[in-house]
Amino acid sequence: MSTAADSSRVADAARKVVQEHDPTSVPTREFLAACFDAGLSWVHFPEGLGGLGVSRGLQAVADGILQDAGGPVPFALNPIGYGMAAPTLREHAQTDELKREWLRPLATTEHIWCQLFSEPGAGSDLAGLATSAVRDGDDWVVNGQKVWTSLAHRARWALLLARTDPDAPKHKGLSYFVVDMKGPGVETRPLRQMTGQAEFNEVYLNDARIPDAHRLGAVGDGWRVAMTTLMNERSSIGASGSRRGTGTIADAVALWASRPDLHTPVLEDRLTKLWLRAEAQRLTSERSRATATVGGPGPEGSVGKLVGAELNQQVYEFCMDLLGPEGILYDDYTMRDMERTDDWRGPLQQRFLRSRANTIEGGTSEVLRNILGERVLGLPGDLRADAGKPWKEIPRG
Amino acid sequence: MADQQEARPFVFSEEQRELRAAVRRFAADNADEQTVRRLMESEPGFDPKAWTRLGSELGVLGLSVPEEQGGVGGTLVDQAVAVEELGAALYPGPVFGTVFLAIPALVAVSDGPVRSELLGPLVEGARTAAVAVADRAGAFDPAAVTVQATRAGDDWTLSGTVERVVDAAAADDLLVAATGPEGVALFAVDAAAGGVERTALTTLDLTRRQATVRLTDAPARLLAGPDEAERVIGHALVVGSALLAVEQVGASQHLLDLTVEYAKGRLQFGRPIGSFQAVKHRLADMLVDLEHARSAAYHAVWALGDGSDDPALAASIAQGTASEAFARIAADTIQLHGGIGFTWEYQAQLYYKRAITDAALLGSAEQHRARIARLVLDTASGEGAPSIATG
């Protein structure tokens, strides 16, 4: 539970950082380093690791002061790092020294992070992945192919899930590692998507070596570690704007207001429905924040991800239908890498195409409905063809 | 629950949790399915003794009535907690007429002897009330008033007909909007008085009854003159909309629990039907709709209490969300139960009829969306609109 004393401690620390490192004049990395050193990167982390050991809910107090003073939104600069790597490292890295070594440059954005989970043969069934890690002395030797890796071309470090025991059932034979993306045997190639851009990459691992010290969690315990990462991913994707009318719905409302010549009653009701659903979801996020008694993200984050993803698609479908023939033009299909993570917020048509991925990335809507059904409502699981089988005997393709 | 201080939005106090448990126990004892069925098929459609206990022993009919008006001085959130549990049980009693509309209207009226005289017995459950004011989509429209008020000295008489007044057939007091020489005012009519004729109607939902009220020179007492009648009635409709949304949430939660249990226990093809994704995903969607309705309804009762949002917008967000959610969840409850869900003997039909009724009362989801469009879209700015690629 947070106390008023904790809250003012966080606020004092934030005001001190802003005073001593004016975010509008010092370089971003210096400012973020000061935030880390003051324990404001993740206030619920222990002191010395970018936190103050206070309730997670007080992060909003710090962010409010830091960002009001013109500070950056660090999550936008290093999304995998802040959203997923940090909580996983904090919980599972082998030594405090390693935690600090990784977390500080992560926090400053000097080191961008990416995640090597999905494979061509393992999407929703992530636990069926085939990339292998074989022990060799103090190292592990990794071989395989990963896909849909955002930021791999800029990343210094990656979170890797690999198979260390093909004879065990699929969930039991996985281990979790941190990989040096600049090391030998790691090759990154851009993956072009339907928008024409390459926001993601394929990563090929050929005899890449990882020191055993860079393993997170026990050998064979990788699935449990991965759950830390994935629940954090869903809750970060699902987190919607906290003010009414912000987020994707703002695009549709602003477009509507700017084009009175295109208004029809049917379109108006369609937009109102979307606005109402966005508002109900916003209130639901507020309610789940207000009533959260424990710090970690739970299955209710899955509601936010499910609704947010479907809403994004419906919002941009609405915009396209509003524009009609004007909407069926495009700006540029020239293949290019994404330099900044918010580059997808280009012209409307690009946002429209990009939104198709929302119901796939970070857990498909089908998988999320299973999670809500099974973990929240307590419904029985589906029959599984691979239950209890050694991974190597499971049909793949 | 006598705590005047508005707590943090969405966080219920310990007292409110106790209140919830008490009302739930009351509903279990007085509104089990068999009792509900017996009452809905007999007169007057509810158990007046149980209603009195609800008012006097539990004290949950006028929880947000201020202490200076003889109430316990709780908040609208307290009232909502009780309403949610009564909704979950499909409690047959004049909740809509008395708790949703009449008591909030009386609370908003300026102090006076008529108000004091009426409010006490309603809060104690000694009498019940119905509000004979035709709303337009959950809002007050003076042009829709169909009753005329005539003054003779200090006395008033009312004449006219109000169609489909919820809870009117058994009500002791009628609050009636009528057009007088100086405009629309709100009057109290003793339903037992001469000149009051009530025709009970067979309703789709037998647990929520209606009657047509015909007044012929019926004696009336002035509650709110033209200077404040519109504000008073508007307040009652907004509070009623928020409480109705909470009732819809309570009933929806009951149906989701019921259907989840059924899906776990019903076996077909040698396995629980809840293990099939077609069933599981429909239940997941019901959960999302319920969570949205809950957030919107709770937001409305908190915002009406602490003034943190435009009351009309908050009420429309709640009604626009909860009406649709309850109707859909009730329909899906029937679907997921299969054949048993369509029978008279199974409870799904009772809730479905309540869902359809609640959706139509105080404005449909469509009408509330139309209001939201006026309040939100008509005032929106085109600034920050995304660029449009032009080829």
From TrEMBL, chain A:
Transcription in keyword set: no
Low complexity: compositionally biased ranges: 1-11
Name the record gives this protein: Acyl-CoA dehydrogenase family protein
Lineage of source species: Bacteria, Bacillati, Actinomycetota, Actinomycetes, Pseudonocardiales
Entry similarity comment: Belongs to the acyl-CoA dehydrogenase family.
Domain Acyl-CoA oxidase/dehydrogenase middle intervals: 114-207
InterPro entries hit by this protein: Acyl-CoA_Oxase/DH_mid-dom, Acyl-CoA_Oxase/DH_mid-dom_sf, AcylCo_DH-like_C, AcylCo_DH/oxidase_C, AcylCoA_DH/ox_N, AcylCoA_DH/ox_N_sf, AcylCoA_DH/oxidase_NM_dom_sf, Mycobact_Acyl-CoA_DH
Ranges for domain Acyl-CoA dehydrogenase/oxidase N-terminal: 14-110
Source species: Pseudonocardia yuanmonensis
Cofactor: FAD
Automatic annotation (TrEMBL), chain B:
Keyword Metal-binding: no
Pfam families with a match to the protein in the record: Acyl-CoA_dh_1 (PF00441), Acyl-CoA_dh_N (PF02771)
Location of the Acyl-CoA dehydrogenase/oxidase C-terminal domain: 232-376
Keyword Flavoprotein: yes
Location of the Acyl-CoA dehydrogenase/oxidase N-terminal domain: 13-125
The entry's keywords: FAD, Flavoprotein, Oxidoreductase
Cofactor or coenzyme needed: FAD
InterPro entries associated with the record: Acyl-CoA_Oxase/DH_mid-dom_sf, AcylCo_DH-like_C, AcylCo_DH/oxidase_C, AcylCoA_DH/ox_N, AcylCoA_DH/ox_N_sf, AcylCoA_DH/oxidase_NM_dom_sf
Entry similarity comment: Belongs to the acyl-CoA dehydrogenase family.
Name of the protein described by the UniProt record: Acyl-CoA dehydrogenase family protein
